[in-house]
Design a protein that fits this description.
Length: 106
């Protein structure tokens, strides 16, 4: 099996969102991770905060310090999974109820 890294786009600002919404997202996230763990493919991952975010823009590789204006400019978190193929990796990605920015081979 190969290791793949999923990067998640933006995400909920836990410091500003209503507590009920935060709990809903946490429950959904934990449920998905528990499923991946039960299947023996979850390697680990983390939620990232918006504090001190940086964005690389365009071909010039201009680095901009955050916080960023748009959630779609921020990597909100990542996980690493094991999969036998790109097709299997894609299958697992489709089970996510979160916006995946990209999936990389480690």
């Amino acid at each position: 099996m190969k290791d793949y890294l999923f990067l998640f786009r933006g995400g909920l600002d836990f410091t500003k969102a209503p507590q009920e919404r935060v709990q809903q997202v946490i429950i959904k996230w934990k449920s998905w991770v528990e499923k991946l763990t039960a299947e023996g493919i979850y390697n680990g991952g983390e939620r990232l905060t918006k504090n001190g975010a940086a964005v690389v823009r365009g071909n010039a590789r201009q680095l901009t310090n955050g916080p960023c204006a748009h959630d779609n400019e921020i990597v909100g978190g990542f996980i690493s999974i094991k999969a036998d193929s790109l097709e299997q990796r894609s299958k697992f990605a489709k089970t996510a109820q979160f916006s995946i920015l990209m999936a990389l081979l480690k």
